[in-house]
Amino acid sequence: MSYLLGIDVGTSGIKSVLMEASGTVLDIALCEYSIDTPNPGWAEQDPHVWWQATVKTIRRVLESSDIDRSDIAGIGFSGQMHGTVFLDRSNKVIRPSIIWADQRSAQQCQEIAAKIGRDHLAELTANPIAPGFMAASLLWIKVHESETFEALHKVMLPKDYIRFRLCGEIATEVSDAAGTLLFDVAHRCWSRELTERLEIPAELMPVVYASSDIIGRVQSTAAADTGLAVGTPVVAGGADKQVAALGNGVIKEGLVLATIGTG
Q1: Of 102, 160, 225, 240, catalytic
Q2: pLDDT one-digit tens code per residue, 133-168
Q3: What are the strands of the beta sheet with 84-87, ordered from one edge?
Q4: What tens digit of pLDDT does each residue of 226-259 get?
Q5: What's the rounded Cα separation, in Å, for the pair 98 and 45?
Q6: Measuring CA to CA, which of 130, 148, 187, 250 is 20 to 30 A from 72?
Q7: 66 counts as catalytic
Q8: How many CB atoms lie under 10 A from the CB of residue 237?
């Protein structure tokens, strides 16, 4: 029998779910954490806390189910949207993640609106301008933490960091990329116009995959931490709201999903 493992990187906790390939759930584990607010209006989380919570929940579902770890056919992800994880050239986290709830970049949002125009930005990204989105957070870092900005090598979204820790690949996928204010949704690529006009180096952005693509396999270090089998396929995954809609069958006009969560 084959199994699937799903990992959700939420705002208030990590959830791991182990299920049979048919969809029958064997076990779900949750490990909660908090939002750090070092200043009024700020919202940050330490990606290492996400990883520690991921390790705990994976181990719990594996131990409770007592399956052969090599029978897990793949690992998928969902995660909180818009937030930014900051990596240096050694692929180490260099500051806490600025998550979607952060409000510090209101001035940068005004600057984006002035440079790009709200209507044109909506045409490109299919999103409104709001603090907590990656573009606004990066512009805030550029102004207020210039040393951090100069040390940046790559940025990614929250769930992408957990996938990176499992398989070592720096990447994102289309659904989360679409929530950064830097992604050309129609052409499914980073917008050269936006990165150039906002003066955000395009090389900071990770490679973008389709949500269903297998982009790596569990490495030995991650296997030792989690109890997973080395070589288990790791799938790109998706942003939590899009994945929730798909999982609830909201795939055609007339269907509605109501979500009551941290946001």
Answers
A1: 240
A2: 999 999 999 999 999 999 999 999 999 999 999 999
A3: 44-45, 93-98, 84-87, 154-156
A4: 999 999 999 999 999 999 999 899 988 999 888 8
A5: 7
A6: 250
A7: no
A8: 29
